[in-house]
UniProtKB/TrEMBL annotation:
Signal peptide: none annotated. This is 6-phosphogluconolactonase. GO terms for molecular function: 6-phosphogluconolactonase activity. GO terms for cellular component: cytosol. It holds the Pfam family Lactonase. It comes from the Bacteria. The lineage of its organism: Bacteria, Bacillati, Bacillota, Bacilli, Lactobacillales. InterPro entries: Cycloisomerase_2, Haem_d1_sf, Lactonase_7-beta_prop, WD40/YVTN_repeat-like_dom_sf. It comes from Limosilactobacillus pontis DSM 8475.
Amino acid sequence: MEDKFLLGGYTADSYTNGKHNSSEGIYTATLDTDKGEVTAIEPVVKLENPAFFNYSTKDHKIAVVMTKDDKTGGIGIVDVDPETGKGKLISESMLDQSVKGSYEAYNYFDHLYYWNDLKYTVPSYVYLDDKRKMVFAANYNTNAIHTWKLDDNYQFIESYRYPIEGRGPKAVQDAAHIHFTRLLPDGRLIVCALGADRLFVYDVNDDASLTKVFEYEVEPGFGPRQLAFNENTNNYIYVLNEVGSRTAVVKYDPATGHLSRIASYSNIPEGYAGHNQSAGIRVSADGKFVYSSNRGHNSLAVYRVIDGGKHLEKIQTIKTNGFSPRDFDLSKNGDFLLCANQMSHELILFKRDPETGYLSVAQEGIKHDACVRVLEATDFLA
């Protein structure tokens, strides 16, 4: 049996320490579940720096963040032929570059912070609503939420920009730094402001404009980066806090759109004193396990969900045998987990026990330069 993943990342040589970057866009990774190994990585579409994307299975479209001619950045829509597995860019919307932004970043090789002044801005996260034909994006650099309305042919026809103010107590929280936008099951939009230590909930209007419903404050210095939830998490949302290296549990009330704090748990082992920034989070399809990645400690934290989703119990911390595990995803049947070590330019495949949630190494050293997005896509490519 074969499962599929989509891979995305950076294509510029600056992301491979000045050496030739062999990545040229979005790729398909084929997992042979009988052999327990990734057997092929093949191109889907050639794009410049497709560092994040999400897709619509219904219409075989990918919404992707991208740059263009190393001068500007924005969002593109890719149409994928499921028979060939190949895609083509059919529309794009580049951002206004009059505001470029800057931020404090960390060099994992030199172990130093540095100030990153950008020559252009590009979103960090994008989400596609194929029912209402809308796109939502988070702009870390310029501290804003972007929304677009699409026509039936996935062409961009209207856009909105919502700047967010605020900052946190840590040096990397010098501004709001919007990092994540995703629809909740009820159609509202939830947003992570990593720098402002806030989660926002919005009603989405028919024209893709937003109306704020609720503003939730996380613990100071947590830096919420991403969220994980599905139909089996009972309205509990698992919040990946990058700056604080913790996974938190919040309760969402669909009747009011409000969030309430439950608990939080450290993603790194007690006593670890090195640098760490948590990066990715996933919840298993059955809602029974949560996985968080650690850049610095270079590991995955595995949690068992208890009390009907209300609390977590850490059951495993496993090394990714590489540097800076940026993103990962579970296979369709949940028997495997594929993780991208961005800074060592390789993937690692873990065997997963669906009953216990535990991981063990199945295959490592799978070369792929500057990969920062891993998304299970078996049905999308079927």
